[in-house]
Protein 1
Amino acid sequence: MAEKTRKQEFFKGLWGENPITRQLLGLCSVLAVSNAVINGLAMGLAVTFVLIFSSLIVSLIRKIVPNQVRIASFIVIIATFVTIADRTLAAYFPHLSKAMGPYVPLIVVNCIILGRAEAFASKNKVSRSVIDALGMSGGYFLTILLMGLIRELLGNRTILGYPILGKWFSPWVVMLLPPGAFIMLGLIIAISNVIDFKIKERQKRV
Amino acid sequence: MNLATRMIVTLTSIGLISGSFLAIVGQVTKERIIFNKKHEIEMAALKVVPGASNVKMIYEERDFAIFEDRDETGNLIGYALQAAGTGFQDKISLGVGVSPDLNTVLSLIIIDQKETPGLGAKITDEISFLQYWKNRDCSKSLILRKPPVDNPNSLAPNEVNAITGATISSQAVLNIVNEAIKKARQLQAEGKLSERH
Amino acid sequence: MNLLVIFISAVLINNFVFYYFLGLCPYLGVSRKLGPSISMGMAVTFVLSLTAVASWIINHWILLPYGLDYLQIVSFILVIAALVQLVEMFIRKVSPPLYQAMGIYLPLITTNCVIMGLALLAALKNYNFIETVVFGVSAGIGFTLAIVLMAAIREQLDLADVPRPLRGAGIALITAGIISLAFMGFSGIIK
């Protein structure tokens, strides 16, 4: 396989290898905290922070760490950044931290992070690993934001707390509940599949 | 260096570095996190007794705490009870203000809940629920009025309006409050509240 | 009474899969056939019970008394990883048939958020020792119930004519949504 350009390395995370819709990784936080845009934003930022810094460190030390203790070291590194994110949120944004409950500490077992550390950062140069992490977290961020927008708008008539739809729209409370999250994500994945099929067909014709 | 030593050295140094990093982060954030937790409950304890200017915790057990509320001149004007119990979906934690003789509910605040949005979650909302809790007579157990009435004045002194479509959440709140007042009364009978007057 | 509430709530009302969204990776990956999902459910229940005990001991005997709560995430994940390794070695030695039945799922469990989620939730809810153990076992039963239900439905779905874009994850998530909707009927039964 020919080496990807940096641009391709970044954009693959947003679409072709999107961690949520394509790789189905780290779904629990996307489903759980996307009931409001603000929670989605905070979760997206937390994951971005952890992913970028753990990829950076893993890539920096990739030649020093013996193969046998690789995973253990990665887990400690990831857990360190997750703790930093969690404590910072709890100290300076207590309301957000409460709304997200155990899902910030759970980033530590989010398969996206360990997956990227193992599959990419431990084999690639620092700059490339950071670009990859940026793309992957971008993909995560966009998906959770989209979920948050749709669920908050339909379930509560608001976006970021500002009323958008008028009283004529009776809110779909189910959107804020777990079933709404499952069904919405299922539909988003289906829609992204449809778009993907269309793109592939067009490429075939060319 | 052979492999075993390299493994041990790498793991120990990663552990040490991350440990010391975390110790710093832990120190920096510790005070604020403790403050945030205490602050939220104390603010609620202050709000549920109108006119109170300072609160002090005088009793604490799991899922239950009593604060005494004093006005600017230091007179005891009521107690704030913080209690938690099972609701429709998960735990409901609330604060209720009562008069010093424990016979009148002054007001109610829901501190934390995970009830159904749009239905049970209305227990946090002033217009549909909390207003009916002001100045209720709790010398007997409080009871729930269902279906709810439009005019608050037609409620008996120890009645509280339920929320349409969320009777279970309303009942859960009522049970938690009744239970908390019972506990407070028991503590008062044991002399654990009055000696601090 | 309190223990019964914890049990019912962890199995039915706040089911780990349908309410907390935990353990979705094996839920989407393994739950295609009924047999393996029962083994997976048993393996998870077993590890969950052990984790409940271990995490409580660490949290209440080491982390909290010495004010080391900032090490909670690191120590939980390391203990879970070590525990899963130990269980795997133990089962391989003691009972090879059992190892064959659920051994391959054990390594997967380390990064399963159900386990970490249990340790964190039990600490967050401030449960005492007995409550934590009951919570762990009930969470495992709830997970098994969810994954078995899903596998039974997906065995049928394989024969159905699902629109192409929905095949795989799409229909699995929507099915999960519908089961989750059905599980919401259990809310309020403890009152």
Protein 2
Amino acid sequence: MAEPWEDDEVDGPVRKFMYVNRRAPYGTIYALESLEVVLIAAAFEQDVSLVFMDDGVYQIKKEQNTDAIGVKNFSPTYRALEGYDVEKLYVEKESLESRGLTTDDLIVPVQVVENDQLAELMEEQEVILSF
Amino acid sequence: MPMLHTVNKSPFERRTLDTALRHAVKGAAILLIEDGVYAAFDGTVVADKVKAALSDHKIYVLGPDVSARGMSEHHVIDGINVVDYGGFVDLVTEYDKVQSWL
């Protein structure tokens, strides 16, 4: 008889996780920490959504080059999320526009949403983690 | 020479730049570093305020922090000077003192 930990069914329920990213990269550790937690949740095959709003939209700005500041450029990792089935990436429209950015400036394909759509998406989640 | 004010917080998240500008005398310089560099880019909701400040202050932005954030000189507002680390040191020696707004 299989031990519980050998049972495929112990995978547990799939929950809807949303990660809300509101900080710029590099100035603080929030962006990198969020990305690491996202990858962990993805490894557990959860239903993961990412939101980039406020200064969080800068996390996925194209063409980041950190050579001169001596910090690892973690932005290419956002492109790898697709490989972990993390494909629900939302960007708040107002945050993008107030920073003079468009989706052409972003390193990954995203869905641009308005405030009220984002509020609805948040209501649909089971767990929300804010960084 | 008056003083050099450094600002390292995003103008979208904190009021640090406003505070620095409010306490900078005419002729004092502003150096934008770390997340403060986001104030230096054109096309944002804070760009007009920063352009207005250029009439009273020289404004500098640290190039390595600009590149790290995926931006380049062509995003920088006309009239703001991009400096490297050596330029940062030059500014510190050129002005009487430095106030670091954190």
